[in-house]
Every structure is written in structure tokens, then in C-alpha cells.
């Protein structure tokens, strides 16, 4: 394994770390995280996996090989890299400083963060930003990059069966289809089912959109290999369940039935609902939970869990 840096977006503090871990697991790549900094993660890993990771990532902007770590007085070299010229990049307002090199002739990048610099060579850069949106819109729709990150954290692989049982405008299933999964999305609201179908066709993805109750899904037991979703938790659930808590509990019981053992589920919910506790009570093994402030009246909690 080599020492790598992962340059992440500033969208969230902890979600990119789980996305890094998940994508390395998906491709069977070894990974050992060394340290986490503002928008930068240092880890030992396989440089051969870099392009696969950035091609699919939501929040990983760049992966590179670390040549050295420097402060204003010293340089610790991991690999000489024959560096003779540096392009400077400052992260989160970090102050650059002079770095004395040994007279090589190749270019590298100096990433300044939290009082030190990472000297490295970019190996792979993310080329796919936000995809185009379809014409069907609904207030509160999930940001496509966040949906992509949640799909990645669900560890779904090409040709595996992915499900979003509260499909809304179809964003999760569309992102899963883009990476080659067999994507399904269902909703109890026929308008959302129709709208998701329109959006999937508009962006050129193959998604099967179904009219179905999340507590009675039309799938065989153990047939679903990944779930990512943003269930409703506001006034919109009144027509479908007595409360958000009842809705999520009934859904998770059904999700446990349709998911195969070892499959991952990633959900976003309001912080007013104890998602960690509910997942645990129903028998899922919770991996991580991330807190995300959306606006003054809404803070989301995003949790990933495994079906034993």
C-alpha cells in the first residue's frame, strides 16, 4: 500500500470519510486511514483504485500519491517523487509557507491545511459533478450529490438490486442506475411514481418505478442488496401513517425482510426521530450516523446500517 491523500469537498465534515471507506470496500481495495483534516484525508491504500473511486464519488474531488509532509521547518519524505516545482493549494484558508526542495525536475502539488503541507502528485480527479435534473420537481427533494454519496455508502455494486422505497423524484434510484445497479424505486403516492419515471427517462437511466406501500414491498425475502432513501417526516406523512415514527418502524420491519443478510441500508431522517435507536431495536447493526443542519428548522441525521 502507498500513502495517499483524498481531497474532499466542504459539503460535510464526516460523510466524505464514510464514502471513502465504502468505495474502497466496494472495489475490494485495502485502506488504512492515517489522519483526518479539514477537507483532506490521509490513508494507506491502493493507488490502482484511485480512478474507480473518483469516477463514482460524490464528495471525493481528488486522490493523489503523497510524496512528503512538510511544516515551516522540516520535510518528511515518503517517496522522493523527484519534485522540483510545486503548485500551491490552500484548504480552508490555511496559510502557505516556503518549502525548500531538493532540486528535482517534476511538478507536484502542495496542499496547505491546518498548519502543514502535503506534497503529492494527483492521480485521479473527479469529473462527474451534479448530474442534470429531470423536469419533475418536488419541494424538499434530495440534493443529487448527497443522494450519490448515500448510494455509495450503501455499498451497492453494478448489477446488484438497489431500492429506494420512498422515491420522491427518483434521485437515489437514478444515481444507483448510473453506476450500473438494477435500480428500483417505489412510492405510495402515484404522482411521485410517475414523476420519478419521467425524471429517470429524461436523464437516460433505467429505473423501474413501482406504486407500492413501503410496509408491504413487492419483493421476495432476501432479494434486495442495498437501500438508500430519504423517508418523509413532515406533514406529508399524515395520509400514509399516524406518525413519522410509525412509518419508519413499519418500513424497517419490511426492509429487514426484503434485504439479504449483509446488505446495507442508508437513511436520512429528522433529528427528532431517534433513527439509531429504531434501527438497533429492529435488529440492524448501525455503522455510522452523521448530523447535517439543513436550515433553521431542520437538522437531518443520516445513518448507515447492516442487515445481519
Descriptive account of the structure:
- With 308 residues, the protein is α/β, with parallel strands linked by helices.
- The protein folds into 2 domains: 2-125, VC0802-like; 144-306, Vaccinia Virus protein VP39 (Rossmann fold, 3-Layer(aba) Sandwich).
- The protein is built from 7 helices and 15 strands.
- It has helices at residues 15-26, 50-56, 144-153, 171-178, 190-202, 244-258, 275-282; strands at 2-8, 31-37, 40-45, 60-70, 75-77, 83-90, 106-113, 116-125, 161-164, 182-187, 207-211, 224-229, 259-270, 285-295, 298-306.
- Strands 1, 2, 3, 4, 5, 6, 7 and 8 form an 8-stranded mixed β-sheet that branches. It has a 7-stranded mixed β-sheet with strand order 11-10-9-12-13-15-14.
- α3 packs across α4.
- The longest helix has 15 residues, at 244-258.
- The relative contact order is 0.11.
- The model has no long low-confidence stretch (mean pLDDT 93).
In short:
The protein is an alpha/beta fold. The chain contains 7 helices and 15 strands.
Content of β-strand = 35-45%
How far is the first residue's CA from the last residue's CA? 30 Å
Query: Structural class, from helix and strand content?
Result: alpha/beta
Largest sheet: 8 strands, mixed
Compute the gyration radius: what is it?
A: 21 Å
Return the CATH topology of the largest domain. Rossmann fold
Sum up the overall morphology in one term.
Answer: elongated
Mean pLDDT: 93
CATH architecture label name of the largest domain = 3-Layer(aba) Sandwich
Please give the count of helices: 7
Low-confidence spans:
none
Number of domains: 2
CATH class of the largest domain: Alpha Beta
Order of helices and strands: EHEEHEEEEEHEHEHEEHEHEE
| Secondary structure: helix percent | 10-25%
Total count of strands: 15
CATH superfamily of the largest domain: Vaccinia Virus protein VP39
Amino acid at each position: 500500500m502507498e500513502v495517499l491523500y483524498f481531497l474532499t469537498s466542504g459539503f460535510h465534515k464526516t460523510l466524505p470519510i464514510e464514502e471513502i471507506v465504502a468505495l474502497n470496500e466496494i472495489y475490494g481495495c485495502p485502506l488504512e486511514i492515517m489522519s483526518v483534516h479539514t477537507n483532506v484525508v490521509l490513508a494507506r491504500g491502493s493507488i490502482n483504485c484511485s480512478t474507480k473511486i473518483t469516477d463514482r464519488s460524490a464528495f471525493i474531488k481528488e486522490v493523489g500519491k503523497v510524496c512528503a509532509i512538510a511544516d515551516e521547518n522540516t520535510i518528511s519524505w515518503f517517496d522522493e517523487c523527484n519534485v522540483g516545482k510545486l503548485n500551491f493549494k490552500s484548504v480552508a484558508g490555511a496559510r502557505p509557507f516556503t518549502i525548500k526542495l531538493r532540486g528535482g525536475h517534476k511538478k507536484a502539488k502542495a496542499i496547505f491545511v491546518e498548519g502543514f503541507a502535503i506534497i503529492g502528485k494527483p492521480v485521479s480527479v473527479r469529473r462527474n459533478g451534479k448530474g442534470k435534473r429531470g423536469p419533475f420537481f418536488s419541494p424538499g427533494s434530495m440534493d443529487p450529490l448527497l443522494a450519490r454519496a448515500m448510494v455509495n455508502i450503501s455499498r451497492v455494486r453494478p448489477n446488484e438490486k438497489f431500492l429506494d422505497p420512498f422515491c420522491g423524484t427518483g434521485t437515489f434510484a437514478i444515481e444507483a442506475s448510473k453506476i450500473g445497479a438494477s435500480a428500483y424505486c417505489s412510492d405510495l403516492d402515484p404522482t411521485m411514481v410517475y414523476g420519478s419515471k419521467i425524471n429517470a427517462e429524461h436523464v437516460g437511466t433505467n429505473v423501474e418505478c413501482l406504486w407500492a406501500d413501503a410496509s408491504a414491498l413487492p419483493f421476495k425475502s432476501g432479494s434486495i442488496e442495498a437501500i438508500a432513501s430519504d423517508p418523509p417526516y413532515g406533514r406529508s406523512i399524515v395520509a400514509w401513517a399516524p406518525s413519522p415514527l410509525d412509518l419508519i418502524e413499519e418500513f424497517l420491519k419490511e426492509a429487514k425482510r426484503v434485504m439479504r443478510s449483509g446488505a446495507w441500508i442508508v437513511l436520512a431522517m429528522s433529528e427528532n426521530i431517534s433513527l439509531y435507536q429504531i434501527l438497533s431495536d429492529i435488529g440492524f447493526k448501525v455503522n455510522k450516523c452523521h448530523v447535517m443542519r439543513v436550515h433553521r428548522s431542520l437538522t437531518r441525521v443520516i445513518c448507515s446500517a447492516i442487515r445481519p
